[in-house]
Amino acid sequence: MTGTLAVYQKELASYFRSPIAYYVVAVFLLGTGYFFLYNVFLTGETTMAATFQNMGILLVTLVPVISMRLFSAEFSAGTAELLLTLPLEPWQIVVAKYLGAVTILVLMTAATVVDLVPLYLFGTPETTTILAGYVGFVLLGMACLALGLFFSTLTHNQIVAALITAAVLLGLWFVGHLQSFQRSDALRGLFGYLSFAQHFTDFIQGLVRTEAVAFYLVVAAIALTLSAGYLQWRR
How many CB atoms lie within 10 A of CB 50? Predict the structure, then answer.
């Protein structure tokens, strides 16, 4: 456990020693602030539904920047061999690095709470719906980060890792649109189930469904398991 904590602390510190964390957080907060102001003050919407939807798309585009360096940077710098020789199981290393990225996600999410101040001052939003939206947002981010971490283990190039992650995440976000082109009920159901956006919509509407929670957690678990397995093979 001590070794895992040490890797986690190193990972978190490395984010803040580089401009990556500051860039991602700044872009995310500026984007979220803009969407919130536009949706609330220009369109007159008194809920966070549209803002959450925009936050989800923004997250999908920014996650590759957060996750691309998790293992690719270790490989390119030649420190991966040292990391893999530590008295830790590959899954412990994966979990430690993953938790470092999730911590950045949680900090980003917590910083958006400031947007709720004017919403509560000038309106009467449903707190339970907002909480459900935030739960869904964090789960979405956890699944995306796990996939990004997996692709980061497959290449030494951070840019390649980011591009692959972005392509896969955008595909999973928009795959639900393929439902309208399918005649088969099975395919329509499959595309709908694989859609990150459709599951996230449930949370935005205030529905914390077991199926949606399980979907994001299973995606994250599968990606982390594959990452640990690949590192074990490399070792």
Answer: 16
pLDDT tens digit sequence for 87-144: 778 888 899 899 999 999 999 999 888 888 877 777 677 888 899 999 999 999 999 9
Per-residue pLDDT reduced to its tens digit, 13-29? 888 887 877 888 889 99
Residues 203, 137 contacting (CB under 8 angstroms): yes
Backbone phi and psi for residue 154, each to the nearest 5 degrees, phi listed first: -90, -10
Q: How far apart are CA 188 and CA 132, in angstroms?
A: 26
Whole-model pTM above 0.85?
yes
Dist. CA 163–CA 160, nearest whole Å: 5
| Domain extent listing, the chain | 2-234
DSSP letter for each residue of 18-58 = SHHHHHHHHHHHHHHHHHHHIIIIIS---SSHHHHHHHHHH
What is the rounded distance in angstroms from the CA atom of residue 26 to the CA atom of residue 200? 23
* Two structure tokens written together for 63: 């996650």
CB-facing half-sphere around the CA of 6: CA atoms within 13 A: 7
For 68, the 3-state DSSP assignment is coil
